[in-house]
């Protein structure tokens, strides 16, 4: 079939298998071009199909020849219905990993559930024995608690008062003022339940209890801080409360892993267009200004550049450069004073009339379509493509 993007706000209902494969090929080529990383050899990535998790899986496999198990939650393809981007990405990743002689298997299911943890652990036990790196890169709007069955929904709200600021509809370039009402009721607790550290700890507890972590095993979860411009809705909002909880959990997990000489880290990554971040109000406007400045300065990075640098320079490069709160800061270039000063200046004047000039609206929009395999260079979208793709390890 001919597959075209069908967008609804910050969601795209279709995905293009060839475009998704090309994205994966491009990321593999980038990692290979940077040379070998002396990193972990048996890696579990939770949230492995898109964004930072996919970049982590690719960096491990093609930077360190690692065997990888990926856990993700995506829609498979069906006749006349495209799968989700993460599904096609995973199929492409496995295809290329296997062609390179690398072990790669994947589990498509809800990582919050005990059953999926069980399946994953059985796979590790059978195939790898143990893992030496666990990347935790889930971004989800909901979580069903595995013990109580309670369903939590995360919200993106400020805490304590209404937040009003500019935002952009990146499809039209319309800059408008939005107001977001503050969290109420259980909003904060629910968001922490979904995006905080409890599930990460559950994974690590389960893996350790079954002796599936090798001596000195490391685990890394991803966080975000961002500038004062977005603070009220992000870092000091409900999602920030969840990130505070995730970051605190790193210390608890580190304590738990002491007996095997293991360690848990949080890496604070840069703001990037992913399915998760395009859902957050105000952030798209910030990102389009940030992209413009960082590209002009020659320091723009995507997920793969971020994770390749995280691995090669920090995690396996011998220089973690932890901040005062014990976090790895691979958002260092985003947070540079000169970058932030220029973004703030542009923020003041950003309007519908000038955004395409002062901001990188096109870069934002292209990256958004790229997430779903559209507008990818070198892909012929007029060509008939088979929407039915299989993930090799599932068959
Ligand atoms: P993403 O939406 O691209 O990826 C999320 C991944 O989680 C996908 O593989 C998806 O399949 C998987 N997933 C979601 N729910 C699941 C479930 N119930 N079970 C199994 N898998 C599930 O998101 P991302 O932007 O790469 O975010 C990953 C992490 O990085 C998050 O913690 C996010 O806060 C953090 N982060 C993101 C940014 C950014 O700007 N995008 C910046 C810094 C940190």
- Per the principal axes of the C-alpha atoms, what is the gross shape? globular
The CATH level-2 architecture is identified as: 3-Layer(aba) Sandwich
CATH class: Alpha Beta
User: Could you please say which CATH topology applies here?
Assistant: Rossmann fold
Notes on the structure:
This protein is an alpha/beta fold and about 400 residues long. The protein has one domain (about 5-145, about 185-280, about 300-330, about 375-395): Rossmann fold (3-Layer(aba) Sandwich). The chain is about 40% helix and about 15% strand. The protein is built from 13 helices and 13 strands. The strands form four sheets. It has a seven-stranded parallel β-sheet with strand order 5-4-3-6-11-12-13, with helices on both faces. α1 packs across α3 (about 85-100), α2 packs parallel to α3 and α2 (about 50-65) packs across α10. The chain is globular. It starts with 6 loop residues before the first strand and ends in a 24-residue tail after the last helix. Nicotinamide-adenine-dinucleotide binds next to α2, β4 and β11.
Jot down its keywords.
single chain, 395 residues, alpha/beta, Rossmann fold, 7-stranded parallel sheet, two-stranded antiparallel sheet, 13 helices, 41% helix, binds nicotinamide-adenine-dinucleotide
What is the topology?
Layout: E1 7-8, E2 11-12, H1 17-33, E3 42-46, H2 51-64, E4 67-72, H3 85-99, E5 104-108, H4 114-128, E6 131-136, E7 142-144, E8 151-153, E9 163-169, E10 174-180, H5 187-195, H6 198-209, E11 213-223, H7 228-231, H8 238-257, E12 263-268, H9 283-296, H10 303-315, E13 328-329, H11 337-349, H12 355-358, H13 361-371
Parallel strand pairs: 3-4, 3-6, 4-5, 6-11, 11-12, 12-13
Antiparallel strand pairs: 1-2, 7-8, 9-10
Helix pairs in contact: 1-2, 1-3, 2-3, 2-10, 5-8, 6-8, 9-11, 9-13
The chain binds nicotinamide-adenine-dinucleotide.
